[in-house]
Design a protein that fits this description.
Largest sheet: none
Order of helices and strands: HHHHHHHHH
Shape: elongated
Helix content: over 70%
Oligomer: single chain
Protein name: Translin-1
Number of helices: 9
Number of strands: 0
CATH class: Mainly Alpha
Number of domains: 1
Organism: Coemansia aciculifera
């Protein structure tokens, strides 16, 4: 028997282990940057709308770091092996996209487009559902990021009242309702995404309760 077969197999296993370790290191750095950006972006919950721009301006260096972290990850992955390792970085990419979605809302009270994600993160969203020929952000990751926005909006509605910005919850409610209506047009097949979507109604309810309390107290029309 030719034992060289096993020597070659061990070489391949070693290569596989090296690749996975490099990916883990890259994802660790991406998660670290995302946590720092999230901590800075969380300041939006403690200031009125008029100061939101200053908050998003303050985290621009972190978005540059996110682009660099993602670029490092991209350099490790060949298109043919994209889905082989995809689960290793998917959650980190979702976190990065969620930061973009929230930052774009704070900047301009709109939903971040796939083009926004590309601009901030440095990778395109695979909206065409085409074969993978480059490192991409999947549609599911983009949708997960949008779902995450609902929880941020429900927190923002409550915290806006705390900082005496009583008009903002109405704006948040209108936006969240339109966004939720848009989501209802989707026939979601991904079980995890479907479960997260089902939880959106609790965030919508919290936003509506804030609105109701403000109207009962005569603070809004």
């Amino acid at each position: 028997m030719d034992v060289q077969i096993f020597v070659d197999l061990q070489d391949r296993l070693d290569q596989e282990s090296t690749i996975r370790e490099s990916i883990r290191d890259a994802v660790k750095e991406l998660n670290k940057t995302c946590r720092l950006a999230s901590a800075k972006l969380a300041k939006a919950h403690s200031v009125p709308k008029s100061q939101s721009q200053a908050v998003t301006d303050a985290i621009k260096p972190q978005f540059e770091d996110i682009r660099q972290n993602v670029s490092t990850l991209v350099g490790l992955i060949q298109p043919a092996s994209f889905y082989k390792y995809h689960e290793m970085w998917s959650n980190a990419i979702q976190s990065a996209c969620a930061l973009v979605v929230f930052a774009v809302y704070l900047d301009s009270a709109r939903l971040a487009t796939p083009e926004d994600i590309h601009a901030y993160v440095g990778c395109r969203v695979n909206t065409e559902n085409a074969d993978v020929t480059e490192f991409i952000i999947t549609l599911e990751e983009y949708l997960h990021a949008i779902v995450s926005l609902f929880s941020e909006l429900s927190r923002l509605a409550v915290n806006s009242v705390i900082v005496n910005d009583v008009q903002r919850p109405q704006e948040i409610s209108t936006f969240a309702s339109e966004l939720y209506a848009g989501f209802q047009l989707l026939n979601l097949k991904n079980d995890n995404l479907r479960r997260r979507f089902d939880s959106i109604k609790y965030d919508i309810k919290k936003i509506e309760e804030v609105q109701y309390d403000l109207r009962v107290r005569g603070l809004t029309m």
